[in-house]
Design a protein that fits this description.
alpha/beta; Rossmann fold; 2 domains; 5-stranded parallel sheet; two-stranded antiparallel ribbon; 9 helices; 7 strands
């Protein structure tokens, strides 16, 4: 069994090459678009992929049958390769070429080097959930449960904490005291409740912790 380590990666400028223009390829392209340079290679493309391409978010390359050397050339600059066609043999062939070329592989029908988690985003808060490919349904279930707990207010609190932290650096010398103030803000119900009205109100209440 692979031993996976959860990481946050900056994919700016990195190329993700997806083989397959169907529903799975669209899901993968949507996930990575805006975070990396995404190229989808296929005979045909879903309307969703065509729309993403039209908006300039991904690049599409239409092909027919590919030789091993052509596959290798298409993934030459790839950081991650995703075989996502409906042809299991082609996916296996592509994954093997990618691995032999030193590329990271995200498999949709088997265990690869990378597992794409189910993700919750709340501003600067990013939570990834995975069952290591054993149960996508359970990953979705956990995500839905956590979304009920990690509400949009958590993203606002992350923003507020960052602003308060930067302000405290110039106002409070002692690091322990700065930590206590930030912790007190997190535990202030009035701050959390104020987010329902406006960020500015929550900010003003939080600022009182600094003035004390």
């Amino acid at each position: 069994m692979n031993d996976f380590l959860p990481l946050m990666l900056d994919l700016t400028g990195k190329e993700i090459v997806i083989f397959g223009g169907g529903a799975v390829g669209e899901r993968k392209a949507s996930f990575f678009s805006g975070m990396a340079e995404v190229t989808v290679i296929s005979r045909e493309f879903t309307p969703g992929l065509t729309k993403l391409s039209g908006n300039g978010k991904i690049k599409l390359i239409k092909v027919n049958d590919l030789t091993d050397e052509e596959i290798r050339q298409k993934m030459k600059n790839a950081f991650i390769v995703i075989p996502a066609t409906s042809d299991a043999n082609f996916n296996e062939r592509t994954a093997s070429i990618a691995e032999n070329s030193g590329k990271l592989v995200n498999r949709v029908d088997d265990m690869g080097d990378i597992i794409v988690p189910s993700v919750i985003r709340r501003g600067d808060i990013v939570i990834g959930i995975s069952t290591l490919g054993r149960s996508p349904a359970l990953s979705k279930f956990i995500r839905q449960r956590l979304e009920e707990i990690i509400t949009p207010e958590f993203g606002l609190m992350a923003r507020l904490q960052n602003e308060m932290r930067e302000m405290l650096k110039s106002r409070v010398r002692d690091q322990k005291e700065r930590s206590e103030i930030l912790w007190n803000i997190i535990n202030d119900d009035d701050v959390w409740n104020a987010f329902d009205e406006s960020y500015e109100k929550a900010y003003n209440i939080a600022f009182k912790h600094i003035e004390r």
